Amino acid sequence: MMRQKLLSEGAKELSYEIREIVKKAEVIQKLGQTIYWENIGDPVQKNNEVPEWMKDILKDLLSKNETYSYCHSKGVLNTRKFLAEKTNALGGVQISPDDILFFNGLGDAIAKVYQYLVPTSRIIGPSPAYSTHSSAEAAHAYHDPITYKLDPDNHWYPDLDDLYNKVKYNPTIVGILIINPDNPTGMVYPKKTLERIVEIAREFNLFLLSDEIYINITYNGVKTFALAEVIGDVPGLAMKGISKEFPWPGARCGWVEYYNRDKEPEFNRFCIALDNAKMIEVCSTKLPQLAIPLIMTHPNFIKYREEVNCKIGRRSKIITGYLSEIPELRFNETFGAFYNTIIFKEGTLNPHQKLKINNPAIEEIVENWVNNPNMALDKRFVYYLLAATGICVVPISSFCSELKGFRITLLEENEDLLHNIFSRLRESIKEYLKS
Ligand code: PLP
After folding, report:
1. What is the atom index within ligand 1 of the atom nearest the CA of 41?
2. pTM for this structure?
3. What are the DSSP E strand ranges found in 271-338?
4. What is the per-residue pLDDT across 23-73, written as a single tens digit (0 to 9) for each?
5. Is the preceding peptide bond at 327 cis, omega within 30 degrees of 0?
6. 106 C-alpha vs ligand 1 centroid, how far in Å?
C-alpha cells in the first residue's frame, strides 16, 4: 500500500478511443484478419506521399549545424514573425511574434491550456467532441466535459441556442471551444455562426479557443474563416499546426496565437503562464519550426495543398455515394478536415444485432467483448464490424455524445481499396441492422 493516494481525480477522465480501438484491432489482427485503419487521422499512414521538394528542404536543414541546438522558448523568432504576418494579412486582429508560442504538437498545447486554468473555470466545447480537448478539459476540472450540441439534422452546425443557454446558466464557463473545420464531423463553421459565437463570448466576458489545425483543409467549394477574421476585440487563442497540412504529424509541432491579450489583464496573465510553462521545458521541437516558412513559401506548396484537398473532396463524394442512401443513417456531406461522422437513427440499434464472422476464434473474442450490458450500442457495432471485415472505425459515443454512430476517415489514397472498404461497410451496416 502506498503512503498516500497517487492518482489525481481527473485521471479517470483521460480516454482516447481513437487509439484504444487499436488495441482491439491488434488482437483481431493477430488472429489473421487484415485491418483497414479508418480510425486515425494520419495521412502518411494512409499512403500520402510526402513530396520530394519538402523532403529536400528538410535534408538541407539537417546539413546545418544550428538546426541541432535549442531555440527560443517561445519558438524560432523568424518563424513566429512569418506566422504573425500571415495572420495579420487576413485583415482582422493584429498580432506580433510575441503573441505566438510553439508547442510539441497541438496535443501538448491542448494539455497545457487546460492544465493552467483553475479547475472551477470551464471551457464549453462541441459534442461530438474531439477527445484530446474534452478529456484534457474534464481532467482539469475533475468533472464530465460541458458541451454544446452539433446538430446532425442541420449539417452538424452548432446549436446556438443550446450554446447560449448553457453559457448563460453556467457561470463557471469562461471560454468556448471551436474546432474549425471540425473533427469528428467534417463540418466547417459558417461565418455567421462564428460571429454569433463571438457575440456570446463578448456578452458573457468569455475567451474563445479555436482549434484550426485543419484550417487549410477544405474542399467541395468551401473555405474556413479563421478566428482572427471575426474575433474583433474579444480575447482568444487560435491553435494551428502542421500535422495535417504538410502533413507531418511525427514532427510534433504546433503553435498557439494569442489575440487581444492587451484588452484583458486576466487573459494576458494566462498567456504569460503558458509562456512560462514552456520556458521551464526549455523549448519545443526546432527542426519543423525552421522548415515552416521554407515549406509554406515554396512555389509548389499552394498547388500541392489544393491537389490534396481536391482528392479528399473526391473521396468524400465516393463515400457519400455508398452511405448517404441508407435509410437508417443520418448522413451529412463534409467540407473540411478528413473525417465523417455517421449516425444511426434512433431505435435502429439493439443489443442482439450481429455480423457473420467466419473465423471462430475471432467470433469467440468478440462475443466476449460485447458481453457487457452497459456497452454502448455503437461500440458493439464497431467491434462486430472490426471482427467481420477488419474495418476499424471509432464509435461516436466515445466522443462525448449521446448519439450512436461512428467516425470514418477520408484518407484512403488507393481508390480501389476505398471502394472496397466502403462497399463492404455499406453491406455490413445493412446486414447488422437486419440481423
Ligand atoms: N486538434 C485536432 C482537432 C485534431 O484532430 C488533432 C489530431 O488529430 C490535434 C489537435 C492534434 O494535433 P497534433 O498532431 O499537433 O498534436
Report:
1. 8
2. 0.94
3. 329-330
4. 999 999 999 999 999 988 888 888 788 999 999 999 999 999 999 999 999
5. no
6. 6
